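1st attempt posting a full record on here, be nice pls
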Amino acid sequence: MPASNTVRRRTVTIHDVALAAGVATSTVSRALSNPERVRASTREHVGRIASELGYLPPSAAKSKSLAAAAEAGPARARRSGTPADGLGVVALLVPDIGNPFLTEIIRGSQRQLAAAGYLQVLVDTEESGDVEWQTLQKLLGTVDGVVLTASRLTDEQLITVAARVPLVVLNRETPGVASTIVDTPTGFEALVEHLVSLGHRSLLYVSGPAESWSNTRRLAAVQRAGERLGVDVAVTRPFRPTRESGVAAADTAINSGATACIAYNDLLAIGILGRLAERGVAVPAEMSVVGCDDIFGTDFCSPALTTIAAPIEQAGRAAVSLLLGLFDPSAAPRRQAVTIGTHLVIRHSTGPAPIGGHDA
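the predicted structure (as tokens):
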């Protein structure tokens, strides 16, 4: 089939050109923006395919769009434009840009993309599956690939997106979709073992968002370890993974009778520590508190927070490496999943269970 027959109705991207030419997307980017960096034969081949597909580099597409928009009026002209001229573009979607855990993901993915000649476009989806889905519908056809962090979409939605654009999900596992997973369940089992070794027999898991895949896995790990070790595990209602939500979660913890509080993430745990201090509950003498992620500042808390740590920047880099592998149709099959290990960091927010349990 001639390459020109592969033209889609949507805007042609350099990924389309790479697929038709049988080369890596990075090769197309170099051939079109830095032709001296590739062999003449490759440059000519890529140029011919791009021409047949009707591909326009971002700068040319922008000029064409602006010219058309000038006839249609200023409102349309304001919507034209591209993220960067002559660069491949990858979108990174995160549920909360204010979460320090995600800062490391953003840094790692951006550095890995920059090294490969790509620009990262960052979108905050506000912990909303609807916002995430609507954003993806707008991005498809304008970016070369997508990395989703802690996606709130259904498996069916993720599979649909993966069929239209190279996609990697981070901290989410869906059959047929490339993924990078931080192994927090193993860390949560270690947390339970640590608390039980200190004499705790009544634990409270402070739940994260109900739609969070990671929350489901972390809760299951805590319950699994609790059953194995013969201790009671109570579960709160879902909370947003923020410090502010930790304040309300602390009141729930105080009234639960539990001697140890296991928070979905560090932000919740930090909020819990602050509220317990306000209410005169000593940590860890009266209640132990643990979190997850080892974000910046957990060692500055009072007391310093026991938590689960992982090389988070490495996770962002690993997700991008998987994505770059999806860009090259001529390459041998690449790994579809990468797992990042975790480890327990014991600080001063955990201690021996109070004799007689916590007095609510």
